[in-house]
Amino acid sequence: MSNLPYLRIGTAVIVDDEGLILIDKRRNKGSMANKWEFPGGKFEDGENAQECIIREIKEELGIDIEVGKHLMNVKHDYPHLSLTLMVYYARIISGEPQTLECAEIRWVKPEELSDFDFPDANYQIIEKIQTQQIKTRV
Fold this sequence. Notes:
CATH class: Alpha Beta
Strand content: 35-45%
Order of helices and strands: EEEEHEEEH
Oligomer: single chain
Helix content: 10-25%
CATH architecture: Alpha-Beta Complex
Largest sheet: 4 strands, mixed
Structural class: alpha+beta
Low-confidence stretches: none
Strand order of the largest sheet: 4-1-6-5
Mean pLDDT: 93
Number of domains: 1
Distance between the termini: 42 Å
Shape: globular
CATH topology: Nucleoside Triphosphate Pyrophosphohydrolase
């Protein structure tokens, strides 16, 4: 059992009608500064994953989303933190994404995700998205 602080993070893979995925760049301060990420955040007391993701996306990007299919959970230990990312597909139902709590936003093709510098825990998500994309094209 780890003595590290533990967090549960609701994470959204927001996909548009063309199959592009929304990623955002963290601000240049704090833990994992300037890294790209799938939007989301920490659970609040009493929230389930879907409620957490909907709230966090509204706070961070100013949009309303619909949470869809569960993609995966990722458990990862950093030197300073242990976490579980609870990852769900989502789509925007209203609004345009804004940089309310991030430095930059981009829509990218699944195969382009590998070109960005993500925190280590995110690479399992990228691999799963890219593998699923390949399967859907066959």
